[in-house]
Backbone:
């Protein structure tokens, strides 16, 4: 494995130097595995020693991606599947595709809560709440949109299919105030809503994903207290309880009052109505997901962004063991991301972990080895496996559609 990877990397960098196409290597002279046309190998050794390393005021990985000397921004986008480890080839398969399926001039409508509505093979997502270009937050809620996967699939061999996939806004009723996270839930969609101003409390709200798009509130308080601004949620496949995170981004973005609870992770049992605290000790608990067997939970802490950028705070994914009774133990640092924050987090059916970060989607093995990146070159807060190896990735003002060999994992109440 090591030797073949090292030679792949050598060949790949030689090909880059010669200006030839990396896919011209397929299959390698010693029978190495072919590199898909849209993929490139990143030789991490070549990044270890740089001619000069800038201080944090010049480069701090907060917003614009790091472009190492030997690469160009266009080159990284041109072959968006970046192989950091051989095992990423199994995730990609022989012919992964990557397409920009929609774009807006500046309104960040492709932000979060990417979720598959299986019965109609549609994907729903939401606009950025509290963003100046969206005009959302306090006076107006972030809106919900959807696309048809049939239309996305028809253009998967194009790189830019802007205009070919229709984006439809849907009116939730009563309106979900600033939805931010979503899961499939008993044939419907369950949203984590951040709330809007002091009177519209954050809540877990079920949306009927077909007309008239009516909604029902499942939970809107912790024994009488408002949550701060609910962010994301995940369903434990072993007990089907709903676990959700409550950071204070509503306050950071000036559309929610000062927090009335410490930031923590909650658990809701929709059979008994019991609400409990599953974990605390986070600055900004954000994305949450379970491994396919339900034995682990991954929770991100995006404390690096709270009141602006605080560079020495976490930008990390933590893993806990999940016991039979649904409680967590053994908190472990799983990964620290190199660019911006790990926002949405999801597993594939083999338990590999994917997070939406500042330059696309990063993928780790269950033991935390960075396997590769799906590089969008822009903040990609969330994404989702939407049936088989189809993946929809939000990129604020761009929406991406990728097809991989890896497939997502869905639990019973998500079907
Ligand atoms: C991060 O870097 C940018 C320039 O790339 C700079 O404007 C900003 O002040 C830096 N932030 C911090 C907290 O150092
Ligand atoms: C895709 O094409 C449209 C024009 O059809 C253009 O406005 C847009 O910038 C292109 N997007 C990308 C990401 O290349
Ligand atoms: C939508 O309305 C229908 C008809 O009243 C009702 O049966 C259903 O439970 C509602 N769904 C939601 C999510 O509110």
Residues:
């Amino acid at each position: 494995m090591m030797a073949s990877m090292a030679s792949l990397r050598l060949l790949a960098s030689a090909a880059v130097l010669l200006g030839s196409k990396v896919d011209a290597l397929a299959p390698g002279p010693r029978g190495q595995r072919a590199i898909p046309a849209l993929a490139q190998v990143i030789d991490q050794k070549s990044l270890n020693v740089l001619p000069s390393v800038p201080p944090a005021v010049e480069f701090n990985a907060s917003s614009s991606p790091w472009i190492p000397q030997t690469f160009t921004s266009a080159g990284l986008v041109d072959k968006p599947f970046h192989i950091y480890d051989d095992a990423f080839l199994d995730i990609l398969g022989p012919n992964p595709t990557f397409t920009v399926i929609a774009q807006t001039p500046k309104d960040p409508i492709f932000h979060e809560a990417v979720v598959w509505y299986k019965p109609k093979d549609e994907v729903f997502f939401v606009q950025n709440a509290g963003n100046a270009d969206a005009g959302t937050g306090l006076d107006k809620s972030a809106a919900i949109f959807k696309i048809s996967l049939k239309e996305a699939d028809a253009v998967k061999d194009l790189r830019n299919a802007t205009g070919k996939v229709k984006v439809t806004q849907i009116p939730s009723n009563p309106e979900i105030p600033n939805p931010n996270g979503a899961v499939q839930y008993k044939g419907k969609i369950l949203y984590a809503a951040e709330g809007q101003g002091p009177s519209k409390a954050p809540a877990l709200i079920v949306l009927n994903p077909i007309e008239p798009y009516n909604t029902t509130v499942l939970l809107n308080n912790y024994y009488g207290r408002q949550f701060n601004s609910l962010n994301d949620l995940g369903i434990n496949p072993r007990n089907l309880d709903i676990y959700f995170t409550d950071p204070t981004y509503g306050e950071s973005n000036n559309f929610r009052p000062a927090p009335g609870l410490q930031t923590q992770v909650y658990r809701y049992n929709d059979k008994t109505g019991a609400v409990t605290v599953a974990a605390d000790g986070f600055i900004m608990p954000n994305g949450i997901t379970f491994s396919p067997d339900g034995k682990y939970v991954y929770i991100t802490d995006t404390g690096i962004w709270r009141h602006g950028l605080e560079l020495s705070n976490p930008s990390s994914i933590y893993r806990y063991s999940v016991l039979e009774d649904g409680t967590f133990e053994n908190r472990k640092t799983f990964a620290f991301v190199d660019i911006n924050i790990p926002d949405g987090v999801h597993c594939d059916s083999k338990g590999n972990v994917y997070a939406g970060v500042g330059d696309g989607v990063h993928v780790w093995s269950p033991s935390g080895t960075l396997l590769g990146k799906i590089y969008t070159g822009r903040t990609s807060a969330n994404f989702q496996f939407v049936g088989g190896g189809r993946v929809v990735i939000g990129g604020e003002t761009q929406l991406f559609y990728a097809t991989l060999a890896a497939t997502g994992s869905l639990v019973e109440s998500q079907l």
User: Anything to note?
Assistant: Residues 1-44+67-95 form one domain. The longest helix spans residues 2-18. The two ends are 38 Å apart (CA to CA). The first strand starts at residue 39 and ends at 41.
